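Incident log entry.

Two folding requests arrived from the same account within the same minute. Monitoring flagged them as a possible duplicate submission, but the sequences differ. Recording both here for audit purposes.

Request one:
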Amino acid sequence: MQADPFSDILQLTRAESLVTGGFTAGGRWALRFPAPEKIKFFAVVKGSCWVAIDGEPEPVRFVMGDVGLLTARRSFVVSSEPGVEPLDAMSVFSGGRNPEGRIGDGDNFAYVGGHVQLDQASGRLLSDVLPPWIRVPAASPHAESFRWLLDQLVNERISDQPGARLASAQLAQLLFIQILRAHLQTASPMSGWLRALGDPRIAPALRLMHGDPARSWHLEELAEACAMSRTTFALRFRASAGVAPLSYLTAWRMRLAERRLREGNQSIAVIAQALGYGSESAFSNAFKRVTGRSPTVYRAAAASAAAGSSS
């Protein structure tokens, strides 16, 4: 199987999705949700609503099958119509006050929501390249997949089947991946590696670098894989990824190095060799140039942070 940079980055950032709740509503109603500490996703599984996100000029109408992803720490209001005075969602649902999740008069609207947990150390690699919010309409090319996933999520939430919690988590993970896939196929502004993944012309080079990051790749090899001249490839790659091809490779190596330094006890010399550096000093110099700290200092800081969080 060929390398998959998208999967590599999701695994490195430990992106894990979880459905956290939902509600039904009818009549005139509005709920204000606090600014999320994690990436927030939600979907309309019945009816329609308006979503007003703090900082955005106008509310956006969501219909059945539409999915939203909120990455910015902004509060937002979900309502039957603009102008309805919102209730505080945490007051409505917390403490078991509303176990059935019903708002207003009726049930002509249904909503499910959840969040995406990212690794504290590496998560910014993903969160920093996402826009403040994403809406994937039900009419998108991914609509069929979304419909199936949403139907299954609802069924798992209301069923009492063994393994429902795990099944919901796996379905939520697939939903998050589909949201990102759909976003990659839009003309919405993107940055960094995410924009690069959306450019099929340079995808072969990304697959080569992720498939064998320790190899001493040359610009000519990468350009040839993309059927471009060296100059055209270098310009195209920088325009998409925001950095030169070999700078991208170095940055990716350093992300892999950070994980090894945090999670294992391999010597710095072994890590250097595994990532294609001829000596420990060459690796240490590159690591400090990219991260601002030496590998030894980074490992000590990571160990101290882990000890603090577990105490």
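Request two (distinct sequence, not a duplicate):
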Amino acid sequence: MSDNNIIEHMFTNKITIGVTGLSRAGKTVFIGSLAQALLTADAWSERRGQGPLSQFGPFERRVFQCARIRDDIHSHLPQFPFRSVRNNLTGQDTKWPEPTEGISRLVLDLDYRSRKHKWVKTDRHVQIELVDYPGEWLVDLPMLRQTFKEWSDDLLRLANNDQRRELSSRYLNKLKEIDPDQAFDAEVTGSLSELWTEYLHKAAANGLTRNQPGRLLRPDTMRHSPILRLAPLPDTLQDSKLGKGMENRFEEYKKKVIKPFYRDHFKNMDRQIVLMDVLRILELGEPAFNEMAETLREILASFHYGKGGMLSWLGGAKTTHVLFAATKADHVTRGDRANLELMLRRMLTLVDEYNNLRSKTSEYKVMDLASVRATEDRMTVKSPKREILYGMPENETSYGQWDPGALPLDMPPNWSQVDYKFFRFAPLPMPNARYEGFPAINLGKALDFLIGDDFQ
């Protein structure tokens, strides 16, 4: 390392930020929008309090100067496709980018001028590494404390409930065809895992979230690996050769898939943001809501950083800040955005009634968020005037005004009285986004919570 690099390293504060969320929560759009906001911050230098970085303290105080993407760091590892995401949202035919599948990274150097001493200004750097990883992998964590029998009984009971029975029927019927003397071989395990994976994808598409093993949904580099030929078995098969082989594979999956992810990646995050698509769960109704609550209750064990938490059991963690964000805040009217945040806050309270998360995390926050605004706020012309949204739902062909209704204030909601309609808005044309960043709601506020105190 050269002398200049040594000096630069001394004045660089390195922060790893984990970005996660279940399918369609908006991870890809969040990372792309955040990076673009930092890269184009100079466009708003004379318009403080405006733009995507408004409420980001170092920007508002004129401490933050500029950002640069560091493609040379972790160049041998999968990189977050920032330029592709940006181009999808800034091209002539704007469209939401394709979701990422596994772990990817984006490293940015943020230059700022330290004003620690009144008469001395020092150029310093904050280097943030955004680590994008699937929330589906978090759902696997409870498996570490289960036996194969407990896991199988739990998942097959779930597969037989009213919401899942039809989705899992092909797998359940296949189980009935298996001879108790069936050997443990690649053909039968491959057939079972294929049908189980098909069922998990159907469940996820219907907004159901307790889907294990998570790697069957998001295999990343393990696609087609024998270790993923894993599926639960009923009591009648658990003592067979097939059952014993599947039990060994279950233990192997915990040892070689789940534990390495938490030890090598998750526990090394300095900060975490968890994106939650509360509105989609509200649209899907009570069964999806109840299952999300149970999934969230299990996932929260992943964020118990103190003594006795899952991560301390796995070897500790250094995470200090955890942010839960209710995404798509632009899909509700302006007056309802505080209620969206309140809904998520109350949902977290329901599943963490003993405040384990709050007591074992140094900094904890809940907020509403729209990483890229797909709507504009409007008012009706005729009385009684009310707030509405202007945009284009994905199944429409023109822009117009839309009334999504009001969010319920109770948690859990009175489902018979829910009057909210979820419109899947396509992105608006954003010709200036390449130079000014994307319009957003609370993006700068989220960034300020995650790293605002690190610009000293």
